[in-house]
Amino acid sequence: MADKNRLNNTEDLRAAIAELQLRMEARDRQKEESNTLENSWIHKEDNAALEMEEEIYNGETRDAYETVQEPYEDAQEGAYEEEQESALTERKKRIIRETTGGNEAQEDHRDAVVRERRNEKARGGAYPSKEQPQYEARDAHSGSGGKKRRNRADGDVIISLKNVSKSYVKDVPALSNVNIQIRRGEFVFIVGSSGSGKSTLIRLLLRELKPTSGSIMVNGLQVDKLRRGRIPKLRRSMGVVFQDFRLLKDRNVYENVAFAQRIIQTPLREMKRNVPNMLATVGLAGKYKAHPDELSGGEQQRVAIARALVNRPPILVADEPTGNLDPKNTMEIMHLLEKINESGTTVIVVTHDDKMVDEMKKRVITIRKGVVVSDEEKGGYSNEG
User: How many whole angstroms separate alpha carbon 34 and alpha carbon 363?
Assistant: First the structure.
């Protein structure tokens, strides 16, 4: 009865409204200051981000870098508006709870569910939620996870090359009439001697080159007909690991991995969660302050893998990832890639390491003089002969 009288008291209601307005103004000021600091920090990295894009993708221009940012800026703007609306709703709820003694735990749980659904919608339902460990498969009862497993079982194709040929010189094909299909979640080796066409194939997938003829589909995008402005979207669907690591020598492990998130302007609070999680995945959580020259070759490659995967691409392409490593580090890296593959990421490894291929017993596609000469499940490099 006393609570009802208090709620009906005009002065109390006015005080509650005034308190709500003060809280809203304080929160808005805090948000504005936070955005100013974060944007200032990110923009300081513009030149370095452009250099990384140019180094990795052989000459991407500032226009392409801006094309990378544009869709994410649009998405962030929509997310910010939604967050502001959500914050207003939350303030109202808190005032009601304080005056009526509502169940705060129930409200927080409901808000957490809303945030999870919004995050999953923003990712297109392709990845586990942020509350779950990265690369952990969804439970069997999850509709999204179940669909992924059914797709994989049904042969859901994520990469398709049909009658693809590429000639640098007329009538001298680097690739000739290549037909390859890779299913979502597969682990595939592409092997062949030097000059066989392996590197040309990878450059075609990344749209560094256009095929002379044939069609290429990657993650739902028709690569051979892709407009230049859509190339960054294609490349964001593929994490790439190189033989020479391509780490930033003047930055530590954390900053190297975070750099991939800065390019797509991931909010700072998310970056602080994503980068440590990924470093833990590759076994480098304790070396986040170390610089590349303080790491072994195997550790540097782990950093490169973490950088390639921190934005959670559905495809990982590793171009001779163990070429500079000793046998022990080679198998450690391959077992790490196998672990990543088991969590749902499609892994493609280009290599000439025959012993490693034979030991792994994965699907092996062999290319010789630009032609696919064999494609075997649980094959081996020895099949090339």
Answer: 49
Task: Please tell me the distance from the alpha carbon of residue 339 to that of residue 275, in angstroms, as a whole number.
Answer: 18
DSSP conformation class of 238: E
Each as own residue / partner, the long-range contacts of residues 88-91 (CB below 8 Å, 24 or more positions apart, any chain) are 88/24, 91/20, 91/23, 91/24, 91/27
Q: Which residue has the tokens 């109390």?
A: 12
Q: Which structure tokens are listed for 304?
A: 């490169």
Task: Identify the three-state secondary structure at position 297.
Answer: helix
Q: Reduce the DSSP state of residue 223 to 3 states and report it.
A: helix
pLDDT by residue (tens digit) across 108-148? 555 665 566 655 554 444 444 333 343 333 333 333 333 33
Would you say the pTM of this structure is higher than 0.70? no
Distance CA 158, CA 168 (A): 27
> What are the sequence ranges of the domains in the chain?
2-122, 157-384
Helices 62-100 + 10-43 axis angle, to 10: 160
> Cα(201)–Cα(199) distance, rounded to whole angstroms?
5
The arrangement of secondary structure in 157-384, i.e. its CATH architecture, is 3-Layer(aba) Sandwich (3.40)
